[in-house]
Structures
1.
Amino acid sequence: MKRILLSLICLILICISLYFGVDYLSTKKIDLIEVIVASRDIGPREIIEVNDIKTIFIPRDYVLENAINKPEEIIGKITSLQGLIPKDSLFYKTQLDSINKIPDAAVPLLQRNEVAFHITNDSGGLDLSTFIIGQTVDIYGTINQRNETPIFDLLLSSVRVVSIKDRKGIEIGKESTGSPYSITLAINQDHISILSMIRKTGTLELYATSKSYSGKESKLNEDSKILEFIK
């Protein structure tokens, strides 16, 4: 009985050794490597976040030369307009762009019910050099009245900056060292008509204040004196 049990144990050990030996040789022969793939189906013009990627092992021969396998070259990038990146697919250089290099860079940064509102510095009176993408600002409006004192008041607070470009339409930053000419703001779509009306009859000014960094984004100052003149 002891001999049978001992033989059985030896047989099990041999089988285990063979299994791991074959597995090791197979892995070594196939040459598996760890790669970064999509953790879900990713559509056009989506910004890649940490949760959108994962790692798996695949044969090295399956990885094409233009595949991207560094997280810092994937996270924060935006997918191109063409096609879909399926779940478990590799990322390729032709599929991703830097946000500041695409014409519609501001659009993916908008939240629900927000639209892009552009302000240009045509008159030269608007200093955009103090603003950066991602910060929030307050929008003040001025309406000039004939023979009366101009009306100046806060319109919107906590408005997010999503793009700043030079006169050539190039995003300020690494791609352009020119002077800021236009700024794009994320505005609640319900407030666009108010800003458009004031821009036609008066002027808009941007300020970074303590109110800019508190509360709800693109919040309308319902007590603004200017609103009485555009109803």
Note: The chain has two domains: 30-97, 107-229.
2.
Amino acid sequence: MVCQIGYIADYCSTYLNVYFKILGLYLVIITSGQGISQTGDSPPKAAGMDFWSFQSIQRPNLPLVLNQSWIQSPIDNFVLAKLESVGLKPAAPASKRILLRRLTVNLTGLLPTLEELRAFESDTSPHAWDNVIDRLLASPRYGERWGRHWLDVARYGDSNGGDENLYFPNANKYRDYVVHSLNRDQPFSEFVQEQIAGDLMSTGGDPESVRRRIIATGFLVIGTKILAEPDPRKMEMDIIDEQIDTIGKAFMGLSIGCARCHDHKFDPISTRSYYSMAGIFKSTYTMEHYNIVAKWHEREVGNASEIAALKKVRAEMAKLNKDNELINLKAREQIQIKVRQDVAKYLLGANEVISRRRLIGEPEPLGPSVSKNLGKNKGLLFEAEDFDRGNVTVDRLNYGKKIGI
């Protein structure tokens, strides 16, 4: 019913395109061959632009191979060409049983059942392999298996993992969103946009789309947040930095966070570009407050009937909590009455202790270890290796005398 989200304020929606321009700026750089400067002017080519990941994608020519009969797809040309270059031959084709095991484990993380093995081995139709792939991709296990990879990229966890390690009670809704997105074959571009600014995307009035896209923005809130930082402004900027760093690594494979303090040492990312993005996330409603301990923002995402049912449950819980407080109060009163009735016993016990303390003036009345540890205020001080009574051997070789523990 409630999902932690990074809600971008409505007044910031007009600047949403600016963010996506920044996100896509590096693609423009790749095609234009230009770097990023501190001033934002058209700069000369940056030193990091020569790296292979910043080059435009090109379609290479297929390498020539000798065994043309082995080729079933263009990728096979590259595999076979490398094998032939070192005098190796492709492995023999795998059996249908092995193929099904490989495919099932790869797509679902599970082994095929005996019935599935027998059905595939007995299927001699030319589309048997395609049918198995379609069946496994339609399985709910597919999204669960491959969703885990994205959840690792998105630094998913059921708690914030920081100093306080507070529990995210609704993080599982973002987890389920990722699994569902894979199972319904959602376009990746839409998958990206929903997680960064799903609350600002047009939904056509569809309540389920509104709910799904708000949950998707939980991407901005999960992950390690140091919520006990004493400096609230630093905490806010650290959270923004964590969001920018995750976005750069998850969607672009770049460590944008390095540009927080200086122009990136290797990639063409300037500090100016970093703070252009930081300015956008500065207006993102991620946290309720930045006190110690800070609290993230939560937003109700259910429909009217669900929200009404939730309010009813909360009212019942409030009544039960009040009843519980009354029960505790009554129990405390009964305990106090019982304790007061036993005051005489406590006084007798205290008198024995007081009488024992009066013996301190006598020569070592309680033994040598007690007498030598008497403080100025008649208090007793024992070192870690000393004890009041008993026949335990004191080890002073490994710990030393008066170690002060």
Note: The beta strands are 2-4, 7-8, 284-285, 287-289, 295-296, 298-300.
3.
Amino acid sequence: MADSPVRAVKDIQVWGHRGASAFLPENTLASFRAAIKEGADAIESDVHVTSDGVILMFHDPTLDRTTNGSGTIKSQPNVRTTKEPVQPVPRFDQLIDLIMEPENKHVKLNNDPEGLFPEIARILSKYENWEQELAPRIILGLWHPLFIRPAYKYLPSCTRYHIGISPSIARQYFWDACAGFSINFSMLVGSEGQKFIADCRAAGKEVCVWTVNDPNEMRTAMTWGVQAILTDKVGLLTELKKEVVEDPSKVDIPGLAAYWFPWSHWRYYAFTHPWLERTQLDALRTNCYQPGPLHKVDLEDLKPNGANGTPVANGSAENGHAVTAAAEQPAQPAYDGLEKADTFGAHQPVAVAAA
């Protein structure tokens, strides 16, 4: 298997975290369009399923934080944001329509279809030649091992990424099933994180970094040669990337900050990483439709896909090179209406990406 590339800064992609969420209501069409206008290569978003089976672009399991509603998503499908300018919460099909507009053909989308991969497949199948033109642009971001087999079953032609905090969890439960990993920035700063990036590169797997809003973190992530950097501040990252491409010396952290940066935040310290990992493990064991011990998924009945080196179900199409993620839940009646659990980090970048 060929190594994945060490990307030059000009080739590192900028993904808008829930759109341009630092300045506009997150996960709205206005936010998505603003991020594209600011130069985003991808749009990261999140997905929930309402009580009537509509897939909405929304991050939290409840409505209270960002909308004029209250309670769970599944109980109230028609809601609007509270942050100005007030926006309706968009549907998944509206997001796909947006990125299929001719001027947006370059854009990738990320969202977290936390359930109903069959419904996502149904929506995608409405587009002509979708398996050739759209599916290769979509990456399914899987935050729980239980999502792996349904991803093969319902959307086998889409690339799979793991979205999480811990590199060790990525290695243990997702390594064989996923072509790439979107990992929290702080967990990649130290030697273990750098080894993970090197091992991914040697195995031909991609690495993305979330959520990077500080300019010095942006500079640091650029030196890693990753596939993509996720940010709330698309304009800032796009401009900084442009400056570094024009003058490579600007990738260096300026002044004395270059010396103390690795010790400038408690999250960068290696002794905090086991605690962050335990937090993720606790969430995986409890905040899902099947609470209990984690198990590595058996992939013996899945054949390898030569396109990205990871297994795909029999009869699947070749994977494309997109950058996004989408957590999902197996399609069984007991899972209907399940809400997304996002308790182990400030960001759960799950998405359906289109590139």
Note: The chain has one domain: 9-335.
4.
Amino acid sequence: MSVRRLADEALQPAGFSFNKENQVWAKKIIAQYPEGRQQSAVIPLLMRAQEQDGWVTRAAIEYVADLLSMAYIRVMEVATFYTQFQLKPVGTKAHIQVCGTTPCMLRGAGDLIEVCQKKIHHDPHHTNRDGTLSWEEVECLGACVNAPMVMIFKDTYEDLTPERLAEIIDQFEKGEGDSVPVGPQNSRKTSEPITGLTSLINDHAHDVSKVKSSSKSAQREKKASPTDEASKDKTTLVGSPAIKKPDEKRASNKDTKKK
């Protein structure tokens, strides 16, 4: 576990506050938690602070702490524990997280890292000259089937080649990041086999699956609908014989003996 500290004081802004839109959003999020449990909103509030400024500053930590009536150290513990929180300035237009876990590395993540080193900065967690781009290597981002891949802010870009990543970086630097399609960057749809579908590949197969689905839905509705008591089948659990009624003769004999 690496030690994570806040950025140098020289980089820290004098203050922080949510903009009007985020203030409204924060009130809604805090209101979702029961009375006395509002501190559970600390992670989403820190994430929103990061989205607003690009990174988590000391002032943002203190602001969130005041909103939730928490000690500053408690919020700082959260911010420094989770690596999803950037504690130093990142690129204003794109911060690229390259997955370096085994599946991605075997599929060419090393080449993607070289692209970032050439186009942004040789070392991770450093911005380019204009301060618009930065990058880092991270652990698994959960899209192993579509390796190699990167995450830029909240979006993933998968099935990458070095050439395609270079194009994406250029588009973000131009301010055209919104035009880049998220997900697979080849002809693959979501996480289907790279060679294409091997089942349910014709219209008939899709029709059959729809029929089966509708049939199951009808069965569920039938079970859920109320029925008359007389129409219900009598059920007996296997291995659980019905409880026998007490023998009237034996019961009367016992009463006679007691007398």
Note: The first strand starts at residue 94 and ends at 99.
